[in-house]
Amino acid sequence: MMKYVLKRIGMLVVTMLLVSFLTFLAFELISGDPARSMLGTNAPSYQVDALRHELGLDQPFFLRYFKWLTGFFSGDLGISYSYRQPVWDLIGSKLMITILLSLISFALIVIISIPMGIFSYQWGGGPFEWIRTSFNQLCMAIPPFFTGILLSYVFGILFRVFSPGDFPDLYEEPGAAFLHLFFGAICLSIPRIAMTTRMMRSTIVSEMNKAYVRTAISRGNDRRSVLVTHVLKNSLTSVVSFLGQTMAEILAATIVVEQVLGIPGLGRFLVLSIAQRDYPVVQAIVVILAFWVVLAGTLADLINQSIDPRLRLGGDLA
Amino acid sequence: MKKKMNRYLVVGLIITGIILAITLIGVFWTPYSPTAMKYGRFQPPSPSHIFGTDNFGRDIFSRVLKGTGTTLSIALATVAIGAVAGTTIGAVTGYFGGVIDELLMRLNDVLTAFPSILLALLIISLVGPGKKYNVVLALGLIFIPSFARVTRTAFASLRDMNYITSARLMGAGSGRILFVHMLPNVLRILLPAITIGFNNAVLAEASMSFLGIGVTPPDASLGYMLSEAQGMLKAGPWYAIFTGLSIILLVFGVGLIGEGLQAENREVV
Lengths: 318, 269
Hints:
The structure holds 2 protein chains of 2 kinds. By secondary structure, chain A is mainly alpha-helical. Chain A contains 12 helices and no strands. Chains A and B meet through helix 1, helix 6, helix 7, helix 10 and helix 11 of A and helix 1, helix 4, helix 7, helix 8 and helix 9 of B.
């Protein structure tokens, strides 16, 4: 058990190192000469050299990567080119908002889709099966930003429940801020709920066809009690892995939804910073988001191996 | 033997076929010019302008036709890149295995750590925003790993089948075995993956254009039009509604085809 956890954490560290290195390398290729672009093409070259020295850009690549990495873990994410402020001061509060937004969406997905998956198995089939499946496909087709536009039209313009584009302060008006985030979470979660429900249902269906279910039923258990006592627990591992991946997709979708509803989170700032070519900020946000995804995957694996001991031996689910 | 009709496949093909037909017509002919600004500002939907007009007095139906064309062509090109490159990689790694397989799969793990839009954003800032083919390039690249993963599993599971061994013993080359003998059996898995990939591509392109880093004028895509429509929500909500519904219908139709294909597979098994 302990050995597995350590091994998994080791893999986590290696993946994170690779992710951060690739990101750093990518920005090395993109950014060209930041000192020159900050000062403009007319600046004298001694000023550019001085700024380059100030930003530490005259040091070798690997040294800078190492410094950046150690800085990253001690809360020093560098200085923003556009604002000339520490990156961490700029993104700290925004990180909080994005975390809240994705956690609320995640909670909605888990709370709604797991029972829905079970219900749709129990009462699925029959002549109306195709309506349910089509509705499911329809929900998957709704892009989050379109829901965002509809919600801001109906609840923002017609009913004035919240004001899209004008996000209330998280600490002064937590209720209003939460409501605003909740609308964002609705946009994010509708297609994911449809996918997770579908996934949950098909996992249950394939589990119910396995030999142990036949054995349990032939010993006189009814299908429903087999579902509750055996199948659900065995279906859980696939659902947990799926939810781990869902975290990544929620994060990707927050970028767009924050833009639509005017939520001042990481995603919105990322788009702004890309437009301003503020690479230290972009780099920091990209690495934070990627770390988050890797962490979610690791957590899903750790939860799974505590559910299903076979996974600790490194085997796949049979 | 007469098979039960596959309802999802039929309905999905009908919806997608109608959209394709209308879009194809839209390439050559639209009821009004999609860029002319002379039809009166913010006309609500009426028989002469069935989707209404926008703040510049442009006919929205004509714009949606053109926009769907752009979105469709980008999504198709993206999926083509992803499927061809991904399947080739999946075939080679799945069939031969070994060090390349191991390396590519690890790279795959790292790439999945980046949310797809994020990766597309990175590539776009590398190659420069605004160009249609850059969007295709960025999206195509990020779709390769998922196709590679799906097909790799399929190729690996076929590798030790008897008919493959017999083909090898008869002296067939690797290329022939991979693409003549194995590929037809992989299609069963590849085709639903293509429909899912197509839908993801439509949604990803729409998101990127919505953020202003995808397609930019004069090439209007549905995503770009939605971001335009958001600013006119108060005076002309129909712009956003019809544009959004077009995206939903497009994705829904192809989604049903995917559902139908998967149902076919279940019957074979």
